Amino acid sequence: MRRICLTITGMVFTVLAAFSQQAPADTAGFRSRPLKIEEVNILSSYYSQTADKSAVSGGDPGPRGIGNVTDLSNGIEVKLVGWDHQRLKHTLTAGLGMDNHTAASQAYVDSSGHGKRTGTRIYPTLDWTVENLRRGTSFGIGAYYSAEHNYYHSIGLNTSLSAKTKHNGEFSVKLSGFFDRIVMITPSELIPVDTAAVSSTPARDSIVYITTASGRTEALNYSTGQVVGKGGKVSIPSSSRDSYSASFSFSQVINQRLQGALLVDVAYQSGFLGLPFHRVYFADSTRAVVENLPSQRVKLPVGLRLNYFLGDKIILRGYYRFYIDNWGVRSHTASLEVPIKITPFFSVSPFYRYYAQTGSTYFAPFKAHTAADQYYTSNYALSTFNGQYFGTGIRLAPPGGVLKTHLSILELRYGHYAETTDLVSDVIALNLTFK
Amino acid sequence: MIIKKPFVLAAAVIGIYSAPSCQPVKEYQKNRLNDAEMTLGNRKIEKEELNFQAYREGSSGANGGKTGGGCGCN
């Protein structure tokens, strides 16, 4: 906890130092101006989950199926704005995030339950947008990178276009591609024994070498499975997973208090779409196999947002989404958030979200799959369940900054989530915007 | 229980597309619409919850969040 506080405090002081020299005021409207820092966002969040029936243990409802997770996420985002000679507005946003997690299920990638249960994910982002305010059009490109111990990298690229209509509407399209290399970490008992690595000398013929979930070599006694030695890192094979999506949105001002947006995504994924360390246990066997899912998936989510300003102090933020894919998953999501303005600069926002899902045809619980199944998984994210998420947020944005500093917006949000799969989680997030 | 009312969505689509004929709104009349909490997209503070929802649930997308990439498998 002390490390968390120090990290956040360090970030805050760094940002305050960056703003120690006042930028000259932009008094000429569309005058050419080089890129300058407009705002800096620092986002920290903490996620805590308790669950059972983890996919790593094949949905085992017993102690081996523990799915508890904690995740501490910290990120910084710097937004720079400038104007060129053609009166185009350029916005460059650079971000860097880091997650540190613990996952009880990860320990069971090693069948002994003593595998590494911590991990770190680092993800830089870069986005550039050019806006023509006179024409109401914009164009953007972005890049994303992420790396973690169980995938070598995820590289994301996107491009977007938007255009305003004459009647207070806006149409936008965004094309994205994510290219992942998944590390093929299999459950320890399913790692093929490298017979070439087995010593042929009579004194050590019972020793085999394996790679663990964290990518290290271990020497095991072949008959007892006991670890007798540890080695260095080795390269584990990887598989690809590509994700493409086209996101369309049309937003419209309906009157002085109401505006809405229709959102349609078409997403296509190909490659290794399961995870190599997710086990499945068949009804007639005690031996585990790795989950097997199709190599293609098409997703079609359609969403609708409606925001209404009720009176002078209450806002109603409504959202509904219908989702369907070719794995048999169908879902409905509905949420309502009600920001209440206690003062013009301070608001409290309770929210509620309901999620209902019909599971994939490829899902079955622990020991329910049969040999007749071509595809199989016991990952409860693909099961039939309902989920409820509720909580509240606060937002403080005084005109001169919080305590007359460069901290212009302070947001804090807490939510509690519960699924009928017995998964329960809590998330708390803090966003600081400096200007 | 899963709701099966596709006509609700169809009605919403028609409502949005017929909206331009509702009321013309001038720039100076948009003080409420321009309020930070009236934004039609997700806010930064929602980033973590969108992430965990995308990984814990079987569906994702149509909310301005990610539709792919990365693991989130623990």
Task: Describe it.
Chain A has 435 residues and is mainly beta. Among the domains of chain A are: 186-235, no CATH class; 311-361 and 384-435, no CATH class. Chain A has one helix and 22 strands. Chain A has a 16-stranded antiparallel barrel with strand order 1-2-3-4-5-6-7-11-12-15-16-17-19-20-21-22. Chain B is built from two helices and no strands. Chain B has helices spanning 6-18, 47-56. At the A-B interface, strand 1, strand 2, strand 4, strand 5 and strand 6 of A face helix 1 and helix 2 of B.
Strand content of chain B: under 5%
Largest β-sheet summary of chain B:
none
Spans of chain A of at least 5 consecutive residues whose pLDDT stays below 50 are 18-27, 196-205
By DSSP, the count of extended strands of chain A is 22
- Largest sheet, spatial ordering of strands of chain A: 1-2-3-4-5-6-7-11-12-15-16-17-19-20-21-22
Q: Mean of the pLDDT scores of chain A?
A: 87
The helix tally of chain B amounts to 2
Distance between the termini of chain A: 28 Å
Task: Compute the CA-based radius of gyration of chain A.
Answer: 25 Å
Q: Could you state the order of secondary-structure elements of chain B as H and E?
A: HH
Alpha-beta classification of chain A = mainly beta
Give a brief rundown of this model.
Chain A has 435 residues and is mostly beta strands.
Fold topology:
The complex is a heterodimer of chains A (435) and B (74).
Chain A: H1 2-18, E1 33-50, E2 69-83, E3 89-103, E4 118-132, E5 137-148, E6 151-164, E7 169-183, E8 207-211, E9 216-221, E10 227-233, E11 238-253, E12 258-271, E13 279-281, E14 288-290, E15 296-310, E16 314-325, E17 330-337, E18 340-343, E19 346-358, E20 385-396, E21 407-419, E22 424-434
Chain B: H1 6-18, H2 47-56
